[in-house]
Specification:
This protein is mainly β and 125 residues long. It has a domain at 30-107. The chain is built from no helices and seven strands. It has strands at 30-35, 41-46, 52-57, 63-66, 79-84, 89-96, 101-108. The strands form two sheets. Strands 1-2-3-4 form a four-stranded antiparallel sheet, with no helix packed on it. A hairpin with a 5-residue loop joins strand 2 and strand 3 (52-57). The chain is flat. 27% of the residues are buried.
Amino acid sequence: MFAIFDPPGSAAETGQPSSDREGYRVRPVTAPLSINRRGEIAGYFGDSAGVLHAFVRRNDGSFSVFEAANASTSGGLGTFAQSINDNDEIAGYYYDQAQSVRRGFFLKAPQSSPRAIPGSPRKSK
């Protein structure tokens, strides 16, 4: 099976150049990086503002999209899900905007579509 997908909110190729708020050119990206035995896929994608968000694509085609608290919101940075195991546990990293450092995270995959990692103070979009 060959499937093409983009998570909800991902940048679309419009033919018109766009830039983030810092002037960097925004290029559409969807990067699936890991799949578990149930066919659930973890990865990241960029939105039209150039911010990167983590996602889980379920085997039924639905998505959960999330980001870490304090994750950067510019410059092609954000939250990157790197792997998902058979227990729906996700590991990845994000760029901490407040501290200007890269930090790791580990969490149980969200079953719905929250916009922030559970327990984080970041508001939903």
